[in-house]
Amino acid sequence: MNPEELGSNNKNGISGFYANGYTNGTSNGSASVVSGRSSGVALGLIDDVDLDTGDMPLPALLPESEKLPRFSSLGYRLFDANGNAVLTNDEREEMKRLAEEKMGELFDILRIDRNDPNSRETPNRLAKMWVDEIFRGRYEAPPKCTVFPNRKNVEELVISKGIGVMSVCSHHWQTISGTCAIGYIPGEYVIGLSKLTRIVDWFGRRGQIQEELGEQIASYLVELLKPKAVIVVIKSRHYCMIARGVNSEEDKALMITTAVRGSIAQNEAMRSEFLTLIS
Ligand SMILES: [Zn+2]
């Protein structure tokens, strides 16, 4: 990671980026306990999948001259849709105020008459919704996660499944909704299962692509738990493929991704045990 990215996220220098690999989707799962790493993407039951990226070149390939500013017009540091920088209440209130104003402008552009009582307060609702709910994980500190010593030296898979995933895709800002299953083999620590739900939610409440969401969760658990292995499987529906684009059927369009760290990556038996248990 570029050390520059560890700095303050705003002009006041109030809050900074986290340095442990969850500022964006490109973390490297570097804890020493876990070495292997693999991941995969499977697209279930979709015939001709068009993962619409808008045909834009990847940002990394953009020449310097074509790059967009890294700071907002107010001087705030910008960061990836699935990154995190903790904001103060005042900063969030300012953000909502400004977003409401711009949402109102968008309504004008789309020629929506806000004398219609159903639309009157919608810019305000949208501003609150994006800052306080849908993008909440971008601006909030990580959930408090107490870990406990693995006193009995548990060396078997610990699995939590059916964890709700609610997110939006970075490409279209459409809902991603599904479930996540997490398995880990404890190393030094174990964790309460409800905390896994909070961690998934914290990463989900951002602009995401599913592949990176799974990677972020896996890397975070490696840092937090120092486990022998971690596997994260996400199955979800992407409404950018249902409400628009290829118009996939809602009950059939499933995207399945896995992110794996440590011994499960090499151990086929353990991997299939996990997949059987979560199915
Ligand atoms: Zn999308």
Proportion of beta-strand residues: 15-25%
Outline type: globular
**Rounded to an integer, what's the Rg over CA atoms?**
20 Å
Structural class: alpha+beta
Number of strand segments: 8
Number of helices: 6
Multimerization state: single chain
CATH class value of the domain at 27-50 and 145-278: Alpha Beta
Bound molecules: zinc ion
What's the pLDDT, averaged over the residues? 82
CATH architecture of the domain at 27-50 and 145-278: 2-Layer Sandwich
Provide the CATH topology of the domain at 27-50 and 145-278: GTP Cyclohydrolase I, domain 2
CATH superfamily of the domain at 27-50 and 145-278: GTP cyclohydrolase I, C-terminal domain/NADPH-dependent 7-cyano-7-deazaguanine reductase, N-terminal domain
> Poorly predicted ranges (pLDDT <50, ≥5 residues)?
1-36, 41-54
Q: How much helicity do the residues have?
A: 25-40%
Which strands sit side by side, in order, in the main sheet?
A: 1-8-7-4-3-6
The topology string of helices and strands comes to EHHHEEEEHEHEEH
Main beta sheet: 6 strands, mixed
The separation of the N and C termini measures: 36 Å
